[in-house]
Amino acid sequence: MREDETGTKGAVPVRRTLALWRELFALSWRRIPAATAATLSVLLLGVPATTGIALSLRTAVDGITTGDHDAAVLGAVCAACAYAATRTLNHTGRSLMIMSTEKLGLTDVHEGIHRDIATLEGLEHLERTDYLDRVTTVRTSAWAIVASMWSAIAIFTDVLQLVVLLLLLGTVSPWLLLLLPAAALPLWANARGQRLVNAAETDTAESHRLQRHLFKLGTRAATGKELRVAGAGEEIVRRQSAAFDDVVEGRYGARMRAAWLRAAGWTVFTLGFGGGLALVGHRTAQGLGTPGDLVLTITVAAALRQSVQQAVYRAAGAIDAMRLIGPYLWLRSYAAGQRARTTGTTPTPDALREGITLTDVSYVYPGTERRALDGISVTLPAGAVVAVVGEFGSGKTTLVKLLSKFYRPDEGRITVDGTDLGALDTDA
């Protein structure tokens, strides 16, 4: 697998993210069809509801100014109903999204993540630092991953609502369509800023894990006694402080750059927002529009600002989930690859008759050059008691891990009564 597609150091391709969201939506539809259909319906119904408020208010105001009392009353009643519907749909939509996310995320997805972590033969994903960073990230990310799928759907409805509102403004003056790029800029700035933050968190993940480990090492009773006896307390504090400073420096700088980007995006939108209102006010004063047009513009502009803000908030959540989606996709690919390698189907003997033989067995831990085991050849006779003795770092633990099929030899082979260890059924 390629690092930039499933790792944490590169951005996850959009096509893979969209494919995952489609998969999650299909799973949600199968597992909780009623809740899924209700959530989707509420999100879509919110699009015409906001437009109805603006159109109804324009009808009411124009009815008042022209003396058409029936139109004024009808417009006022429709505006009240549309407003009530908007509030109800917003509240119901949030509740349904949370409920649907919990039902799917905390059962199927959460269970799948922990099954992949706990049922693999090997231990690389629990010991290699580059793998462990991803496993640690994804271990508690099920809820957020499913929530990102619903956020993406909600962003689509937000964008659809923005388009409808802008088309409505275009009926007042085509110049108001220029608010479209002004509305898009905060979305772009927020997405760019969130990517900076995510990259900083990924780059400082190892330092963050190190400083947490050193903090626990120095504040727990069991390890605290050993540190005091060894006189290593000051050194542990120094290293923990240095790691913590690395994390703060990297993440604080990224968050400040993201904040400046967001501020610039909202500044441009605010200027465009004010310019649009001034234009419609001028047209109304010149007799080129009705008071209802002015009210519609103010209402739509306010709804536009709220829609942009909501889209930005949801986009931030979806983009933030990208740092979880990458490790999640990596874990699934890694687990599938490891299970594909597991070909052992030969029954395990009930008792050894000959013994276990290691022939020129060598092993190098990934990321290092030093061989933990180098050309080991030995026979462990059946029925014998064998002690594995050696200095720290001489390969005792590695040898036992190879015998337990936690790792596979890089060179050589291990046989059990003449049968290759890799061919034996692991569970047995």
Verbal overview:
- It contains 14 helices and four strands.
- The protein is of the alpha+beta class and 428 residues long.
- A hairpin with a 6-residue loop joins strand 1 and strand 2 (371-381).
- Helix 6 (129-138) packs across helix 13 (322-341).
- It is elongated.
- The model is unreliable at 1-9 (pLDDT under 50).
In short:
By secondary structure, the chain is an alpha+beta fold. It is 72% helix and 7% strand.
Compile the SSE list and pairings.
Layout: H1 3-6, H2 14-31, H3 33-66, H4 69-118, H5 124-127, H6 129-138, H7 142-170, H8 179-203, H9 205-219, H10 221-230, H11 233-285, H12 291-320, H13 322-341, E1 355-364, E2 371-381, H14 396-403, E3 411-416, E4 419-420
Antiparallel strand pairs: 1-2, 1-3, 3-4
Helix pairs in contact: 2-3, 2-7, 3-4, 3-7, 3-12, 4-7, 6-13, 7-12, 8-11, 8-12, 9-11, 11-12
Give the proportion of residues in helices.
Answer: over 70%
Counted beta strands: 4
> What's the N-to-C terminus distance?
30 Å
What is the mean pLDDT?
81
- In terms of DSSP E residues, the strand content is 5-15%
Structural class: alpha+beta
How many helical stretches? 14
Give the biggest beta sheet: 4 strands, antiparallel
Strand line-up of the largest beta sheet: 2-1-3-4
- Rg of Cα set: 31 Å
Please state the second-level CATH architecture of the largest domain. Answer: Up-down Bundle
Total domain modules: 2
Which descriptor suits the 3D outline? elongated
Level-1 CATH class name of the largest domain = Mainly Alpha
The CATH topology name of the largest domain reads ABC transporter transmembrane region fold
In terms of per-residue confidence, which ranges show pLDDT below 50 for 5 or more consecutive residues? Answer: 1-9
CATH homologous group name of the largest domain: ABC transporter type 1, transmembrane domain
